[in-house]
């Protein structure tokens, strides 16, 4: 059932991304960078659910497409920092809007259902695994970012 729900969600999201000419994996990279840039390739890889290991090929294609730019790290000349180009930022904003529309279609379906309990069960399933670690790291980074922005 989980696999069926994941596949249906993936198909729907893929269709919504078609006008942008992006894959779900590319959209995840753009959203991760939008939320946390600049990041090294290793840091991007740690935050991705779509890709285990190094996302170097995926990111290289996105650099070639003009969505991501690579710059030498000002802190460590051996590292490269990745950030969004203007085109990448525009795409990330469109993806965020698509995600919100997608989640909006789920809201009426899930209204009154035990969503919190289901989320807790799903966290148990992914805890300590690469995808769970990536989501937990994103959650922690987002929390730290919000802390820094508070007066």
What are the key terms here?
single chain, 151 residues, mainly alpha, Arc Repressor Mutant, subunit A, disordered C terminus
Describe the structure.
By secondary structure, this protein is mainly alpha-helical. It has a domain of 101 residues: Winged helix-like DNA-binding domain superfamily/Winged helix DNA-binding domain (Arc Repressor Mutant, subunit A). The chain is built from seven helices and three strands, in the order ααβααββααα. Strands 1-3-2 form a three-stranded antiparallel beta sheet. Helix 1 packs across helix 5 and helix 2 packs across helix 5. It is globular, with a radius of gyration of 17 Å. The C terminus is likely disordered.
Distance N to C terminus: 45 Å
Structural class: mainly alpha
* Helical content band: 55-70%
- Largest sheet at a glance? 3 strands, antiparallel
- Report the CATH topology name of the domain at 2-102: Arc Repressor Mutant, subunit A
Q: Give the integer mean of the pLDDT values.
A: 90
Taken from the alpha-carbon principal axes, the silhouette is globular
Can you identify the CATH class of the domain at 2-102? Answer: Mainly Alpha
In the predicted model, the low-confidence regions spanning at least 5 consecutive residues are: 147-151
Total DSSP E strands:
3
Identify the CATH architecture of the domain at 2-102: Orthogonal Bundle
Give the C-alpha Rg. Answer: 17 Å
Count, helices? 7
Biggest sheet: strand arrangement: 1-3-2
Strand content: 5-15%
**CATH level-4 homologous superfamily of the domain at 2-102:** Winged helix-like DNA-binding domain superfamily/Winged helix DNA-binding domain
